[in-house]
Structures are given as structure tokens and as C-alpha cells.
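sorry for the late reply, my laptop died twice this morning and i had to redo everyting from scratch. anyway the thing you sent over, i finally got around to it. pasting the sequence first so we're on the same page, its 126 residues, then the predicted structure underneath. double check i copied it right bc i was rushing
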Amino acid sequence: QVQLVESGGGLVQAGGSLRLSCAASGRTFSTYVMGWFRQAPGKEREFVAGIKRNSESTLYADSVKGRFTISRDNSKNTVYLQMASLRPEDTAVYYCAADVDWLNRIGVLTSAYDYWGQGTQVTVSS
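ok and here's the structure:
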């Protein structure tokens, strides 16, 4: 069982920055592929960014490329999402997710992930 706890959400003006954190339980965090997703009201949950086990590769949605950066610290069992140049359309609940299978591959579908956090609200005002 893996528990994920997000933090760092809040209200920010357009153009501002936020850093989200996701702390994971367990002793095998370095074996998980980690992802960030978001869900806006009335919309489906969508992929934002993912990172392989030892940070050897990352993947971003086109909508956030160049503005968001995913990173991880395996010694702290934590994955981060640094968000810059925020826009009102970035407003959503942000979720981190863990893929614990043996493939070190970044999935973009929610079905690729086994465990989810409870989410943290990010609101960007115009």
C-alpha cells in the first residue's frame, strides 16, 4: 500500500508561481514512476507531467511544457511540481500518482497509475 499526500496548493495571480509537493510512504519510492494530473470542474482528469524512477526522463503535457517542471528526491520520498507563468486555465485540483509496476515507463493515462493522493487545489486568478 502506498500513501501519497500532496501539499503546496493555493491561490495565486496569473503569472505567478507555486510549487507542489507529494510525499509518499513506503521504502520503495525509488522504484515508482511518478506523475502529476489535474482535474478542473466539469472536465476529465488530465496528465500534466511524469518522471521516471531515477529522474532519467520526464514528460510533459503540451499545455504546460516550458512552464512546469517535475522533479523528485528519492532520499525524501517526494516528488515536486514547480509551476511558473501560471494562467487561469491552470486552475484545477492537482493530484500526484504512483505507478508501481515493473516497467519504468511514464504513462499519460490515469489507468497507468496504481495509487493517488487526495489532491490539492490550485486557483489562478486573472
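The mean pLDDT is 97.
thats about all i looked at so far, will dig more tmrw
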